[in-house]
Amino acid sequence: MCAYVLVAEDDQKQAELARRYLEREGHEVVVVADGRAALEQIRQRPPALLVLDVMMPKVDGLDVCRILRRESDLPVLMLTARSTEDDLLLGLDLGADDYMTKPYSPRELVARVRSLLRRGQRTVQQADPVLRVGAVHVDPVRHEVRSDGRLVDCTPGEFQLLQAMAAQPARAFTRDQLLGYLHGFDRYITNRTVDVHVMNLRRKIEPDPRKPARLVTVYGIGYKLVEESPRVA
Question: Which residues, including other chains, have CB under 8 Å from residue 82's CB and lie 6 or more apart?
C-alpha cells in the first residue's frame, strides 16, 4: 500500500535514511525538521501517517501528539532515543499508535509503517465513509456529493475542497490551506482559484447562493463548511 507519509525528524541523516527507505517502498514522503512545521503541514495537507521524533525544536514530539489528538486520529509512529518504560507509556498514553527506540532498523521502520497503514485502512473500510455536514453529504468512495438529497456534479477540484472542509466541519480554512488540496487536481492554480471554486460550489449546494448559509466566509481568514448558518457571507 503506497501512501503519503510525513516524517518529522530534526536529525538530517536519520530523516534522509527514513525518506530513502520509505520512498523505496513506494510512499510519497515529506520531511520537516521541527514540531511546529509538522503541525502546519498536517493541517495544510493531512498525511496517511506521521513518523514523529520526540526530541525536536520549537514543539517537541510529545506536544505535537497531544495537540494532534485533539484534532485528528492520524496514525502516529513515534521515534525516540529514550528507552525507559515511563517514556514509552507516556507516548502511548498521548495517542501514539506505535513506538520505536533509536537506533532502529530502517527495514523495521518500513514494516511498522506498513502495518499501521493496513490497520488504518481496515478502520476506514469498516466505518461509514460518507461525510455529513447538515444537508451536504460527501462520499469519498463513490466520489459523490449530495445537497438536500440531490446529486450534485462537481469538478475534481471542487470535490477535493468540499471533501477537505466536510472532514473538519466548522473549521476555518485559509485560502492558502485550501490551495494545498488542489495540487494535482487543478492544472492552473492562482490566488483566485479557491474563490472561483467556492462560488461554483455555492451555486450547487446552497438553497440561495446569494446568501450562503453552508459554505460561509470567515472574514479576514477564508471559508468553512457548517451545518447551517443564518449569517450572510
Answer: 54, 88, 101
Pick from 8, 12, 18, 13: nearest CA to 112: 18
Distances (CA, A) of 11 to 39, 75, 222: 18, 22, 35
Task: Tell how strand 136-139 and strand 131-133 pair up.
Answer: antiparallel
- Among residues 68, 67, 66, 92, the alpha carbon closest in space to that of 78 is found at 92
Using CA atoms, how far apart are residues 198 and 216, in angstroms rounded to an integer?
Answer: 9
pTM of the model as a whole: 0.53
Residue located via cell numbers 456529493: 145
Q: Which of 21-25, 125-129, 207-211 bottoms out in mean pLDDT, i.e. has the lowest?
A: 125-129
Q: What is the pLDDT of residues 71-86, one digit of tens each?
A: 778 889 988 876 555 6
